[in-house]
Design goal:
Blueprint lengths: L2 H12 L3 H24 L2 H13 L2 H9 L1 E2 L2 H20 L2 H4 L3 H27 L7 H30 L7 E3 L2 E3 L11 E3 L4 E5 L5 E5 L2 E3 L2 H27 L5 H6 L2 E2 L1
Antiparallel strand pairs: 1-8, 2-7, 3-4, 5-6
Helix pairs in contact: 2-3, 2-5, 3-5, 5-7, 7-8, 7-9, 8-9
Amino acid sequence: MKIGEYRKKLIDSYKENRKTFIFYTILRIMVILTLIRCLITGNYQSAMLCVLSLILFFVPAILQDKMKLTIPPVFQVIIFSFIFAAEILGEVNHYYVRIHGWDTMLHTMNGFLCAAIGFSLIYLLNRGSENVNLSPFYLTLVAFCFSMTVGVLWEFFEFTMDQLFFLDMQKDFIVREFGSVTLDPANMGTPIDVAGITDTVIHTASGETYTVSGGYLDIGILDTMKDLLVNLVGAVVFSCIGYSTLKFSKSSKIAENLMIKPR
C-alpha cells in the first residue's frame, strides 16, 4: 500500500467519530502552524518536535489498524491532548519552565493513561484466552505495575539524556536545607544538616562563576521523585476504577471510555 493511501486510511479511521476528528484536525493545524513558525525563525530542533508530534498523532490509528483494536474516542482525545501538551506546549513553547506544575500534570496524566493501556491489554488477554483467567485484583495489579514501569523507564531516559547531552530534562529545584555525610569532617557517615542556605556560588575550572540565589541547586533528584509520585497517583486512580468495574460488575462510563476493545 502506498504511503498516501495508508495515510488516507488512517485519517478515515478518525472520521468514524466526528468530534474526535474535529479535535484531531484542530490540533494538527496548530502543530503545522507551529512547524512553519519554527522553520521561519530557524528553530530546527523545535521543528523536529513538531514533525514528531504529527507522526505520533497517527499512532492510535496505526494500532487500531494493525492490532484490530478499537480505541474509544475519549481515549484518543486524551492521547492527542497529551502529545500536544507535552511536545508543542511543553517543549516548543516552554510551558515546562513557564507554567508551574505543567510537568507534574503531564506525569500524573501519563500514570493514568499507562494504567489504562496496561489494564486494557491484560483484560483483552484475559478475555480472549481459555488458559488465562486472572482475578480482578491481579489484573489491576499488573496494570498498575505496567504504568509504574513505563514511568521508571522514562526517568531512565531523562537521566541518560542529561548525562550525555546536558539537556536538563530532570529539572532543577532550589532547596534551602539538606543533609550530607560527605561533609562529615570525621568521615564517620554522620549526616551533617546544612540549613538556612541563602546562596550558592559555583566556580568552574575555566574561571566562570555562577551564583544560585535562594538556596542550593538540586539537579534532578527531587524532580525525579516528584514525577514518580504523581505517576503513582495517576496509576492508582485508574487502577481503582478498573478494579471496581471488574469486581462489582458495575458499568462505568469512565472505564468504558478508556477501555481498548477488540474489533
